[in-house]
Amino acid sequence: MFWSILPLAVILLVVSFIFLTNVGELKHPHLDIFSVVLSTLAFGGLLYGFSNASNMGWVSPLVILPLIIGAVALVWFIRRQFHIKEPLLELRVLKTPKFAYSAIIVTVINSALSAGSIVLPLYLQNVLGLSAFQTGMLMMPGVAASIIVSPLSGMLFDKFGPRVISIVGLLGLTGALTGLAFIGPATPIPYLVCIYVLQSAGLTLANMPVNTWGLNALKNEYIAHGNAISNTGRQVGGSISTAIIVTIMTMVTTAHQSAGPVLSAASGIRAAYGVSAGVAAVALVVAILKVRPDKSKIGLETETEAV
């Protein structure tokens, strides 16, 4: 399977070398090696600890020790970024409230969905007994929904601002994950397809407008740093949440082994989606409370339309 992806990766690499050009001013920042080491220990330790919890239990030394090392290294890493001239991550941009809330929402969204790409195929194959090909075909409408909604979200953002679009998207996303928290061995396939389409469309509606809203609050020279923080939040939040949610799913599945392999797997998957829905609800609440359109820009757009 992985070999089939290699030609696409090579094509993408070649096309990138040919067509991608630098549009910004090039700089030559100093790479702080100690920050790289600290970030590796921090994120690697946390991920390793959470990943081991499903097999070894939360009191195992191979869970507790990596979590402690990761937490200490993370605090040290954050403090160091505020005290060196050229930090690996310019965390000072988080002092801009709009960007800080944007980064939180985007990280939480990806944390809620990170396990979905693992859990749904497991459900379709282990609970419903579908083949890998059938699983891929059933997930294609969700991909199509993302492709269709993506350009629409940009146009809607320009017209209405971030608030309405992000809240609608997060309502759809949270509702879809909540719906998946009640699936079982007898769940109809059309229901799953519709829910997955709603999840994909909700993600696309919420993710891009919120991220753009946050980056727009930064000065031009800090946008690259803002992108770096947002991407780091996505990756780290997604990785750690995947480890935690899969751990919960495994523990619930093990606790229901007496019900048989199919029903126990369904119980674990429902628990995983329940946690994911709760995480998505946190992003929804933050969006409702903190995402506000830029009134000056809306007023400017209104004046332009009037002219």
Automatic annotation (TrEMBL):
Entry keywords, A to Z: Membrane, Transmembrane, Transmembrane helix, Transport
Keyword Cell cycle recorded: no
Gene Ontology CC entries for this record: membrane
Principal place of residence: membrane
Bilayer-spanning residue ranges: 6-24, 31-50, 56-78, 99-124, 136-157, 164-183, 189-215, 236-259, 271-289
Localization per record: Membrane
Keyword Transport carried by entry: yes
Annotated GO MF terms: transmembrane transporter activity
Any Pfam family the entry gives: MFS_1
Bilayer topology annotation: Multi-pass membrane protein
Signal peptide (UniProt feature, chain positions): none
Protein name: Multidrug resistance protein Stp
Species, as recorded: bioreactor metagenome
Gene responsible for this protein: stp_12
